[in-house]
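Changelog note: in this version the structure field was regenerated for every chain. One regenerated record is shown below for reference.
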Amino acid sequence: MRIMEGFPGYHLRLNQTSSPTLPPPLLNVTGGLMVNTTVKPFSVFEGCESMVEGILFDLAIQLFNVILGLPANILVIVILIQNRREPSTSDVFLGCLAFMDAYFGLMTPISFANFYHWHSKKVWMALKFSYGVKDTTGPLFLSCICVDRFVAVLFPIAFSQLKHPKYRISLSIFVFGLTFAYASAKMVGGFPNFEKVFTGEVLATFTWMMICNASILMALKRSRGAGKDEMHPMKKKAFKMVLSILVIIVVNYLPLVALFPFEDYYTPDDFRCYVQPVGYAFLNISSSIQPLIYLSRLEKVPFLPEAWVKRCCARNQPTSNKTPMTASSTETITTITSTAPLSPA
């Protein structure tokens, strides 16, 4: 649905707040002749009538987020509230991310209603704000989770001194400030080359998350211990988890990183009708992938049959516990497994 952001005539059409009934014919005088003309009705595919594949792909992803991602994010929030007495270090980031993804999912039905029925400029402004929220909160909060996990694995002593929630709350407030500033600017519009800000943000956060997760993987791989060929089962579990998360980060962010910086090399129609909707669709699907991965790592999920949870999560359980672990190693692995699930993209 974001594809409409780039259409020149879109803001004019959204000045209409009545129903999408065609207005009365307009009489245009041309060379002394009265020509009967009508205003073209609004279409979600305006400007891309012959290139609708990218837009349809984005619409399908947004529907998927409403059907599956929205309830999953709400369930994650409920679980985090229930576990507030024994929170993990990154629960603040996870909760903020789930809340913002749920908010973005709630705006999707409103988006459909406005495109096809209301045609309200005020609603469109609210939708642009939600797009700005999604553009910013996902990459920034995921980067915060990566920082938390990175410090826990590579600098465990420093991490033990920074466990107090006040540090994460302060960082979350800072992220919210950046988010609302960006979303407000996107809502108001009129800033030259404003989309370059989003491109720079994605490039920076993608690079940072790749470095963090790659460093964690190398650290876990080196931690087998002297004279041991096999990695400890818990560390092997964490290694596979971080590796899968790294793959998901690539899937969600690589299309944006690979396509958006080269906007000037595409024709305006190709970028607006194909590149933008497909790139945003890969970013938007993270609203469903993140909570589902988090839920798949839990031993017990509220409101779901226990048989479903066991079937889904059985393969995630460690198969052996023969090698003893020190307290510091256990703490590090616990941090990884508790912070990693919701941090793919």
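Spot check on this record: The chain has one domain: 2-339. Residues 2-339 form a domain with the Rhopdopsin 7-helix transmembrane proteins fold (CATH 1.20.1070.10).
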